[in-house]
Amino acid sequence: MSSRRAATGAAVPATTCPPVRDAERDGRADAARRIKNTALACAAAVMAAVALLYLTLPRLVLRPFLDPGAAGDAEAVSTATQLLFVIAVLQLFDCAQNIGVGLLRGLDDTKSGFRITLIGYWLIGLPAAWLLGHTAGLGTLGVRLGLLAGLASTAILLLRRYGTSLRTHSQAAAVAA
Hints:
Elements: H1 2-25, H2 29-56, H3 58-62, H4 73-106, H5 110-135, H6 139-176
């Protein structure tokens, strides 16, 4: 289940990098912005379809992994169903942060992507997972919510950095011309 989602999210950055690089090299910031918007829209459509499946048919999604009729699995199915609701939102941000890294790579800005993911994962996500999972007593759900916080902040910061970098590159190209 998550490997298919990850494969979809991981393929998008590789496809955004070359067109962004070409658009930036040719001084077409508007095209680079359209690439970002198109990549995010396409990914959001796919992730929304998967999220709809998770939200409407959780037992069907979980059936290959858990047997709802087995003794003792009722609690596991209940927990997994709760986690599917979090994962339905989490995957949107996961895919967006992958796109953000690919977009920055297209601008030859790999350092920012690295720094931002460190901040999002280690300074935001990990403490949030610990606080929600252990301190707030939410257990596995809290850990996943912390992961969601880390991925969401990473995605927002990466896409914000892309916009800033794109403006900087456009201004530098205008001065050089």
